[in-house]
């Protein structure tokens, strides 16, 4: 499994743009809207290589995430619970080869055996402050 530190607050994909001789990475407004980040704070940024072939599926994935089961959570806690079943879209792959999906407030869910663009039904197995680990309970019908 991918080792994600508890301090991870957000994971998203964004292009780097040149503006007047400097380079800018735009933070999606949803990251601030869902309280993953605050506009007046400073954050450390990690850059992960993203193959060009997964860019379109990552962009679609952030727009197509849906939950099969609605669970109410406090805004400060994780937006998932152990045993919860939901549909996700895998946005990218972590260093260990596991799929990475984002749910409410930019919360990261690591899904073993998933690939970018997959839309599996998953079950949350382990929940930590900033990341959850899940297994696939029903594969993406498009990949069968």
Automatic annotation (TrEMBL):
Annotated region described as Disordered, given as residue ranges: 48-97
* Coiled coil ranges: none
The family database entries (InterPro entries) matched by this protein are listed as:
NA-bd_OB-fold, TRAM_dom
TRAM domain spans which residues? 79-138
Low complexity bias located where?
53-74
Q: What is this protein called?
A: TRAM domain-containing protein
Q: Tell me the organism's taxonomic lineage.
A: Archaea, Methanobacteriati, Methanobacteriota, Stenosarchaea group, Halobacteria
